[in-house]
Specification:
27% helix, alpha+beta, 104 residues, 2 domains
Length: 104
Amino acid sequence: MDLHRDGRLKQRAEKAYAILSDCTLCPRNCHVDRIAGEIGFCRTGRDPVIASYSPHFGEEQPLVGRRGSGTIFFANCNLACIYCQNYDISQCDRGFQVPVLDLA
């Protein structure tokens, strides 16, 4: 909460968002301007692509509570880990774009 109160959280979010104009968020460093609508190596533009979201009850009780901890699975991961446990979610280009403010 201190990060929010003193403005550091907003500064960090703005800094992260600015990276999208010359995208180097992942090791591919494709340098596309995702803010202008260009699509990166990850097949994602300005807004993230969400494969699914739901309550999650598979963690320890203090984290889960009565309503679940929540999960958000992003689509279009470009790391292509050979033993990816979420291949069908992260690699198969299925999902829907969600504006970042809606995601928050």
